Amino acid sequence: MPVPTPPVLAPPTLPPAKKDCLDMVSLRRMMEDCLRP
């Protein structure tokens, strides 16, 4: 039985590539904050 895909939480206001890029930048920033002593 196939699992239904979850609905998109927010409407895509940005182009997918730009959104992914921003997400990667924010994710890297959070990781750097965690790794900072």
Please identify the oligomeric state. single chain
Q: What's the number of helices?
A: 1
Task: Report the radius of gyration as a whole number of Å.
Answer: 15 Å
Give unreliable regions as ranges.
none
H/E topology pattern:
H
Anisotropy-based shape: elongated
**What percentage of amino acids are in beta strands?**
under 5%
Helix-strand makeup class: mainly alpha
What is the overall pLDDT average? 70
The N- to C-terminal Cα distance equals: 47 Å
Please estimate the helix content: 40-55%
Total number of beta strands: 0
Q: Major sheet, described briefly?
A: none
Could you please describe the fold and organization of this structure?
The chain is mostly helical and 37 residues long. Helices cover 54% and strands 0% of the residues. It contains 1 helix and no strands. The protein is elongated, with a radius of gyration of 15 Å. The model has no long low-confidence stretch (mean pLDDT 70).
List keywords for this structure.
mainly alpha; 1 helix; elongated
Give a brief description.
This protein has 37 residues and is mostly helical. 54% of the residues lie in helices and 0% in strands.
What layout of secondary structure does this protein have?
Layout: H1 16-35
